[in-house]
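quick one, 321 residues, struct below
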Amino acid sequence: MSNNRVLSRRKFLGTSLGAGAALTLSPSFLALAQNASPIMRPIPSSGQMLPAIGLGSSATFAQVARSEDISAVRDVLQRMHSLGGRVFDTAPGYGASEEVAGQIAQELGINDSLFWATKVNVAGRDGGSANPQAAREQIETSFERIAKPVIDLIQVHNMGDPDTQLGILREYKEAGRIRYMGITTTFPGQYDHLIEVMRSQPLDFIGIDYAVDNRDVEETILPLAQERGIGVLVYAPFGRTRLWSRVGDRPVPEYASEFDASTWGQFFLKFVLSHPAVTAATPSTSRPSNMEDNIGAMLGRLPDEAMRRRMVATVDELPMV
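---
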């Protein structure tokens, strides 16, 4: 795709194997990393380059962060960073994720090199107007947890009172305290409202659900993001757990090797990354081995349009769950 840029293989391997010398990487990952450059994507509003695969902190990550044993959170963050991932997506609404990840990143010494994407949403339960002071207090708490003077990205979570909360984020951006601002939703019932906001507000990013069997955003939202120069973070690229249930124990199609996918996880992620509007995907996991597999999706080739149609046909033939 035209908006792909790559990091040199030598630099990527030096980062992966130098910073992660204690990690045991799979032979398939090493083989691909030695012959392919990681995919980087530009943020449309600035040109800043981001690795195309990051880490989300909802779902299992959030569950582990709430437990007394947070070693899995430490391990998955370290694995992501050591293999070249930088985007970490979190939110105050994800339980202990933001606080625990902030502490661990500082302990590991990787805090400053992560691209921190967090959220704000203090709208009332009835969807009414947010309390501006409560929103500012929530944002300041995020600054304390993340422990960086400038947060890379804060988005309004799930369309929570955009007029109030985007206005507050503009204040923070103009003051130089955040680099980028945006808005998110993973609820189809909110898509029309999201489209209105995308057309009327100066956004740097949106966060949206998108998967090979969840393609509604291809109709209007992703083309509009391209038209407006808005970056896209993809959430739920595995349909949360839906796609795993659909494939079961079926083998990955042989044709997946034509775009360097050796696992279903890479198959699903490469489909998402092959859309030119997508800046990065941030699947959630608490397992280092899954993190490695996900990072593998930003190595090597991506499917072209004809291959994307073939992938859709393959998944559409799977049983629904």
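The CA atoms of residues 42 and 104 lie 27 Å apart.
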